[in-house]
């Protein structure tokens, strides 16, 4: 059994795995980096330790500077399942990117509503995505004005892949978290495979938070790309006129 675990340890090193919340785990030697899938850069990268004694351990440092430990429980069909002795921590299931089989999910409509309980917060408030790749949204810092952008084919395909991995159809209809100054979240999604409505009070589930962060990240990069393209076109036109 020990040799099997050693082989698993060696398989982890210098490889990239993902979990069901669309986080990437980049393993290298005795450390790993956890980041959101599809993001080239992230300010929320978490660096952990990979240890091998009698068992393989993943070690995180949480928000309270305490160490969270996960132990490898099983390796089955290319998936690795890590469990914690802390009953409040969910299991971590890792699988390789190339093992994801496309199930043909197509977005028909996706709506997100965010309602903070305090007025000074910033960020997205309402967002709607339709199957023609058109996005309409409002931000608090932009005086709630309606903004519109169209995602590129590659970004829209990434979004559909994100939803395939997250499997929102398996989520509960409502999540209630303790708190008093957070935000309430609503996700309404229609695909060719399922329709689902999810409510979260005070904060979103990690899967929903990663989805919102991915969409927000792509909104910014798509807008920057469009703005640079328009600037290039104007510059090229003026250059032709000048010459």
Layout of helices and strands, plus pairs?
Blueprint lengths: L1 H11 L3 E4 L3 E6 L2 E6 L9 E7 L3 E6 L5 E10 L2 E5 L8 E5 L10 E10 L7 E7 L3 E6 L7 E4 L2 H14 L7 E3 L6 E9 L3 E7 L4 H37 L1
Parallel strand pairs: 13-15
Antiparallel strand pairs: 1-2, 1-8, 2-3, 3-4, 4-5, 5-6, 6-7, 7-8, 9-10, 9-14, 10-11, 11-12, 14-15
Helix pairs in contact: 2-3
Shape: globular
| CA(first)-CA(last) distance | 75 Å
CATH topology of the largest domain: Mago nashi protein
- Summed up, the helix count is 3
Judging by the overall fold, what is the CATH architecture of the largest domain?
A: 2-Layer Sandwich
Mean pLDDT across the residues is 82
Strands, count: 15
Low-confidence residue ranges = 226-237
General description of the model:
Strand 9 and strand 10 form a beta hairpin. Helix 2 runs antiparallel to helix 3. This protein has 243 residues and is an alpha+beta fold. It has 2 domains: 75 residues; 119 residues, Mago nashi protein. The chain is built from 3 helices and 15 strands. The protein is globular and about 55 Å long.
């Amino acid at each position: 059994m020990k040799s099997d675990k050693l082989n698993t340890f060696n398989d982890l090193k210098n490889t990239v795995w993902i979990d069901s919340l669309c986080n990437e785990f980049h393993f290298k030697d005795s450390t790993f980096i956890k980041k959101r899938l599809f993001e080239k850069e992230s300010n929320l990268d978490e660096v952990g330790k990979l240890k091998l004694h009698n068992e393989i351990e993943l070690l995180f440092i949480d928000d309270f500077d305490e160490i969270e430990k996960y132990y490898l429980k099983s390796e089955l069909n290319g998936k690795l399942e890590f469990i914690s002795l802390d009953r409040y921590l969910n299991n971590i299931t890792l699988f390789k990117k190339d093992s994801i089989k496309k199930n043909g999910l197509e977005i028909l409509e996706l709506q997100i509503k965010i309602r903070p309980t305090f007025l000074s917060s910033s960020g997205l408030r309402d967002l709607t995505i339709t199957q023609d790749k058109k996005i309409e949204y409002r931000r608090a810092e932009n005086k709630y004005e309606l903004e519109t952008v169209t995602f590129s084919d590659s970004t829209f395909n990434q979004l559909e892949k994100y939803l395939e991995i997250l499997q929102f159809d398996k989520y509960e209809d409502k999540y209630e978290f303790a708190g008093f100054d957070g935000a309430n979240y609503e996700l309404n999604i229609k695909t060719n495979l399922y329709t689902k409505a999810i409510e979260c009070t005070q904060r979103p589930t990690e899967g929903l938070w990663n989805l919102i962060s991915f969409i927000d990240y792509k909104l910014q990069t798509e807008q920057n790309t469009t703005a640079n393209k328009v600037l290039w076109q104007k510059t090229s036109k003026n250059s032709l006129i000048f010459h």
